[in-house]
Amino acid sequence: MEDNQSLKNMGFELRKHVLTMIYHAKTGHIGGDFSVMDILTTLYFRIMNISPENSNDPDRDRFILSKGHAVEAYYAVLAQKGFFSMNRLMEEYGTFGTPFIGHPNSHINGIEVNSGSLGHGLSVGVGMALAGKRDKKDYMVYVVMGDGEVEEGSVWEAAMAAAHYNLNNLCAVLDQNYLQISGTTREVMSHENMDERFKSFGWNVLTVDGHDIAALTEVFERAKRIKDRPTLIIAHTIKGCGVSFMENQLAWHHRIPSSEEYEQAYAELSGRCRKK
Question: What whole-number distance in Å separates Cα of residue 107 and Cα of residue 100?
């Protein structure tokens, strides 16, 4: 198993791949990719029972990236895990006819469902978790949502159903970076007391620094030990994490870097990789 610092460094290396993919393809969502990266690396390299070798195993864990516009981070993690080659990803992302499109595509090995129509992922996750219960399977279902996404009513219908069916095999993660496409979440739709809101629906709720590998590991392990209800992990993150001029900046929701910005961002990420 990778140690905490190795996983942290992996996250910065994968951010460099994401940066390069988006820079060359001239499309993508850097800010959200960078905020969710440490969550994905912790799940795929420490927590989940999923690999290229067992991707069709009925007992594998399931993962849904409900905030599908952060697909570049998802692709990079899957490539690092060995579902397809990093070279192929870097060459094909965003090109004509490629399966590596701007939202998760289930034609790609390792991706369970197409996603990106915000508000749908948790409902799909409820179905997967309920099927696991009825089939007497031990797998976990993980769903990563954006904080802007929880403005969708379908999220709350799914939350109510998950608690009703006592889906302790369902773990949702809220990537809470407080920014969405049209402003801050506080300006667009207030998200205060999100923990109390989910608790009132009957969920177990945990909070964590979404860039702390050790802390992420601990809350994911705690979620697996819950026996009577689903778990929401509120991961406090920084949009654009890792690059000084991108962090907490709304413009980097989907902005494409100039050549000068690309070089500076790449250099900053490379410097972060070397820190111990």
Answer: 9
**CA gap 117, 204 in Å, rounded:** 26
Please give the Cα distance from 130 to 3 (Å, whole number): 33
Radius of gyration of the chain (CA): 18
Q: Which two tokens stand for residue 204?
A: 């177990």
pLDDT digits (tens, 9 = 90+) for 29-74: 999 999 999 999 999 999 999 999 999 999 999 999 999 999 999 9
Q: CB-based contacts of 220: which residues, under 8 Å, 6+ apart?
A: 42, 43, 46, 47, 171, 233
Predicted structure pTM score: 0.95
- Using DSSP, how many helices (H) and how many strands (E) does the chain show? 10, 7
Of 151, 235, 145, 156, the closest CA to residue 187 belongs to: 151
Give the phi and the psi of residue 234 in degrees, each rounded to 5: -90, 110
Structure tokens at 198: 């989910």
Q: What angle do CA 108, 48, 229 make, to 5 degrees?
A: 115
Q: Report how far residue 175's alpha carbon sits from residue 219's, in angstroms, rounded to the nearest whole number.
A: 14
What residue ranges in the chain does DSSP mark as E strands? 62-65, 141-146, 170-176, 179-180, 183-184, 204-209, 231-236
Token pair 């990106």 is at which residue?
Answer: 116
The number of CA neighbours under 13 Å toward the Cβ of 92 is: 15
Helix runs in 110-258, H state only = 121-134, 153-164, 185-188, 194-200, 213-225
Would you say 167 and 130 are in contact if contact means Cβ atoms under 8 Å apart? yes
